[in-house]
Each structure stands twice: as structure tokens, then as C-alpha cells.
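Quick entry, no commentary yet.
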Amino acid sequence: MSVEIPIDPETYDADDRGERRLVLEMDHEAAVERVREALTYAGFGIATEFTPSEMLNEAVDAGRDPYTIIGACNPGVADDALTETDGVMGGLFPCNFAIWAQEDGSQVVYHVSIMKLARLVGLAPNNDAWADIVERTGDYTEEAWAAIDQN
């Protein structure tokens, strides 16, 4: 059964969604530590961190390889985003960075911009203030990606 959605996802690309991914050639714990340090360096606070693979492996014997999510937040941008959206942006907080192990032992680091997604689905306004929030978040994220991608 197909469910109709109010937007056409095919009209948006990875850049529209603020989607990024890279592969790190290291073990899972080292990759998680690299992402954690890079986010802190770039001005994010670590709001939450959890490992769904452990929960799923325990609860339903999923057999998942390591998969960790780090929820990051830049307090100044978060405060502005909550103000600009009358609080609804909190439903998407924090900005998540997912790290998962691949069969070859490398780690994928993945992020999608909640600020861009909020605008695409109508949770955030289409105005200059929101454009500034997207740009500021993008600047912090770019700085984090540069630190994550160091060799």
C-alpha cells in the first residue's frame, strides 16, 4: 500500500536536506570519539548519546553491528530556532550524527540538517531569520565535518 505525502521527495537532493556522509577507516569507538571531539571543537554541546544497536540486539536479538547516535546542540542557534518556530523546533532536537560500522570494519558518519528539513516540511518559516539560522548551523556543521575528516 502506498501512502501519499504532501511533498515530492524526488524534488529535493542531499544538499536541500543538508545531508552529509563520510567513511572513516577506524574502529567504532575511535570513530565515535572523533565525532564527539569534532562536534565539541566546532561549538556544539553533546546533548545525548546512545547506541541503538545494543538496545536492539538485547531486545529483539537483531544482530546489528555497532551503531551510535550523538545528539549535538549549539545553544545559541537552538535558542533562536525555538524562538523563530514558537517552540515546535524542539520536536526535532538535537542535531544527530549517526556512526555505524560497515562489514569491512570502516565506519560511516552521517548527518542530515534538521534546520533544513524543518523548512522543507513547513515547521520553520521561510524568512531571513530562518535563513540565518540555517547558515549558522551550516557553518558549525562544516567546521565539525572538517575536524571529523582530518587524516
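second:
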Amino acid sequence: MDERVKTIEGELTARGLRVGIVASRFNDFIVDRLLSGAVKTLLAHGADAGEIEVVRVPGAFETPLAIKKMAASHRYDALIALGCVIRGATPHFDYVAGEVSRGVASVCLAEGIAFGFGVLTVDTIEQAIERAGSKNGNKGVDAALAAIQMASVLRQLEQ
């Protein structure tokens, strides 16, 4: 690209960021790995542990309401949603997965807050394990990195 073109990119520094994380308790054997990855990533990129707040909700379906309350408080520079929805034998998966994604996206757009989405929607437990720190990485790490970068982008856009 031509170097005269101004490009705004997110920086990977969490220094000074206040970050809220919503983590569901359902499938906690997976979500706890996502949470650990997200927190370690935030700290590794300069976040102060005292500026990270974790809110535990019963399941992924409850995540949008917690995200809405947190965003409305204006106490955070970035929010992260972590959860795990595993397909079963009923259509329940489709409803939960769709509503969580839709609900969180609508809140973040309405509030204009940086966000990282780390809610796994998988067919099997094995797929969940793969995405929570195994061969496919850790989606909690990815969500934290997205939140850090978007907070940086939004700050630059506000200048």
C-alpha cells in the first residue's frame, strides 16, 4: 500500500485498559481454559490485574444481559465474552448459539465498546477441547487479542 495512505490499526498493548470478562459456568471445564488464556494474554500485553473484572453467569444464554449491564456502566474500555455451547440431540444448540451471538453483537454495536467474542459453538466436546488450548489454539486468547486491538482502534478513531 502507498505509505502516504493513513492506516489505523490496533496496537497490542493493554496498558491502561479496563477490561470486563463475562464467562459462563456451563461447560466450565472448557470455559475455565478460555478464561485462563484470556487473562494471561491481557496481563502479557500490559494490563493491570486490578483493571480486569470477571463476571460469571450460569450459561452462554445469559451472557448478553451481563454484557449489556457492563457496557452501560461505562466502567470498561473493552469487554470479552467466553462460553461454550456444544451441539446436542435437540435444536437447543441453534437457539442458544444464535441468540448469544446476536445479543452480544447488538449490545456492543449500540454501546460502541471494544469487544472480543470467545463463545465456542461446536459439535463435539473434542472440538471444544481443541479450541480451548489444544491443537487449534485457545479462543480465549484470540478474544483477548481482538478486544485489545479494537480498544486501540476505537481510541484512535475518537481522536
